[in-house]
Hints:
With 298 residues, this protein is an alpha/beta fold.
Amino acid sequence: MADQSVSSQSTNHIMLMESVDFHANPETMPTNSYQHKDDKEVGDIHQQAVAEFRVMRDLLVEHGVSVTTTLGQKGCPDDIFPNWLSTHHGGRMVLYPMLTPNRRAERRKDIIEILRRTYKDVQDFSLHEQHDKALESTGAMCLDRVNKVAYQVRSSRSHDEVAAMWCKMNDYTHISFDTEHNGQPVYHADVVMWIGTDLVGVCSECLIKDDIVKHLKHRREVIEFTNAQMEAFCGNSLEVIGTGGEKMLVMSAGGYNSLRDDQKSLLAQHYKTIIKPEIPTIEYYGGGSARCMILELF
């Protein structure tokens, strides 16, 4: 696994999961307003998604990111978005409670056992599913790993009580906040915002209160997005480490193309390289984008 310092925000080693059954997940659609129903043959949707996935994987490898790829399983159309676990400095792995049955089925013993060889300290929050309390990993909480702050967007996939427990056990400050877009809370924090080493991206238009932006500005420069830009998934981005230790930003081509020139200029001040995969099928039917697809390995 990546040998990163305890204070690093990002990593050069990630895991991606290639789906074997990708299509619009009917179980998650009620809470994800960015998903669209299957409107053509599911097999065609799946094949196009796999092609997009492989291009994104290859782009990351070409830029010097260390990528471990695994295969998904039938009956789990969303496992291209591995939101059921996270890894942390010091050899810790955390397992999470998921909202819907077919997302709970993504939590696979074979992958857990492989990762357990490196991440021997395992925290398991999945039992909270029995009480319908979900906390869907780094989707539910956007982590400032340097300052140990967890920004949690409240939604049916992100329960305050479980998030507070997670923060206490992992020595993080817990900051929860509310959003609204398309008549409901944004389902995941990582759709609303991303946190890099020196720059934060956040959709300020969807925030019920603006105190989160003020808080973020205490520690980093902030780039603010509109709801329309967030819907294009510019907020679903992630800083990674590539060739020569360079910090790079992964943002889908759709997300990047939604930005204004001044926003692109600000990004360029912090990132010489922006990795921009074309993943429209995954975004349209899955309701998630580049960050959702990446499991960081610290």
